[in-house]
Task: structure prediction
Amino acid sequence: MKPKVTMIAWNQNDNYVVTAVNNHLLKVWNSSTGQLLHDLVGHADEVFVLETHPFDARIMLSAGHDGNIFIWDITKGTKTKHYFNMIEGQGHGAVFDCKFSPDGQHFACTDSHGHLLIFGFGCSRPYEKIPDQMFFHTDYRPLIRDSNNYVLDEQTQQAPHLMPPPFLVDVDGNPHPTKYQRLVPGRENCADEHLIPQLGYVATSDGEVVEQVIGQQTVDQDEPGLEPSILDGMIRQLQLEQDQRTGADPESAPSGPQNGEGTPRRG
Result:
């Protein structure tokens, strides 16, 4: 197998460069001379997370798809600390990202099961108010390109950045209660009826049909006592202003969906 570099990171003072290779080794190099200093052995799968300590130039963190999280002393080429992300009843969880806190006393990781892993000092009580699993319902939605080569969400045919804020769901796509939906930026002050997602049946890649969040609940504008979504109105206004700036005729533009799904598509 021809070795390939999957990730690269400089240490805090730029004296060393650490590369992750697809043969599961980490290599420490002198950044001035290019000399190989150490091979760091420990990972059993590919590594896509290399994070330097915010002020200690000796320390580098690595994490990978094998669920292992290592703290290395790259000046000595030694392993300082090791954690393994074991999930009861499900094996290990691949670690996708990691960041140190500004003071260097804590670090947080996210894994393939939607968990946020926080390592550091103290108790975990402040973090117990959030669910065990958190994903956005749009996280794994496929994207397509239109005739102008712009990216669109395949299901709604809208630009992802113009879609309403996504809903929080668990690993199986089941939406969390409304109190958690308010944690999503853009939904802090939404009315309760706008925090209830619309469920539908979606076919997966292996042909299985599952119930998932497909968008925001339809609001009947004729029903007394219900107001249209403020967020959707703002998005439509932004689209209208963009059309006017580009010289498009808003009267000739195709009308958008009326169920709070997002903005009208441009011709």
Q: What stands out?
A: The chain has two helices and 19 strands. Residues 218-229, 250-267 have pLDDT under 50 and may be disordered. The radius of gyration is 23 Å.
